Amino acid sequence: MTRSRARLAALALLLSASLAGCREPAPPEARSDAEQQERDSLYALGSWLARNLAGIQLEEEDMAPLQEGLSDALLGRPLRVDPVEVGERVQAFLNERRARMAAGEKSAGASFVDAARKEPGARRTVSGAIYLDLVQGTGESPKLTDRVRIHYRGIRRDGSTFDDSYARDKPEEFGVTRVIPCWMEALQQMRVGGRARVTCTSDLAYGDRGLAGKVLPGAPLQFELELLEILPATPSPAATP
Hints:
β3 and β4 form a beta hairpin. This protein folds into 2 domains: about 5-75, no CATH class; about 110-230, Chitinase A, domain 3 (Roll). α1 (about 5-20) packs across α2 (about 35-50) and α1 packs parallel to α3 (about 65-75). The chain is an alpha+beta fold. It starts with a helix and ends in a 10-residue tail after the last strand. Strands 1, 2, 3, 4, 5, 6 and 7 form a 7-stranded antiparallel sheet that branches. It is built from 6 helices and 7 strands.
């Protein structure tokens, strides 16, 4: 288990303990099936909350005050700190932790981008994305003013998938200018019927904010894109007489 995953697991356990209250939990062998299912549900809720905090790089020593705040708020006890009064400090804390994680992700992701650049046939685009044709299309190429119908798969630098239209068996439709920068550039280089792999530095993807629960701040990403169709332009609404 990586250090970051260990932190998330610890946070999830603490969250589930907070939600369950302060009573001493029964040992596993003494729990009924219903009790164990309830604990599993609370654990899953804790892990869900943890995924949404993953972008702020929590440390082991952060767990105790975080648990204290969660317990007091969830159990209706008086709060030791007024969240409104310290709102600016909280935002500054979040910004600092997010920036720290983004810097670490960029550093760790440099080799990921470099490996993509060295693949046979890969080329660097004007913006700095790494573009590789997997299947050459034979149709037209989209323009900035077009809408497209595509299949895609989003991949983190560790090889895990965070979004996948193939798995949903549902292509998506986007305006070429309504996507992240590396997609916008890659789509204009593709032809209908083609497939490509594009590797994006974080500034061409989700930047230093990341994508809550899915993409860490500063993370480079890789996408497999399949251009299925350039859609007819949406007609302008008729003028009112």
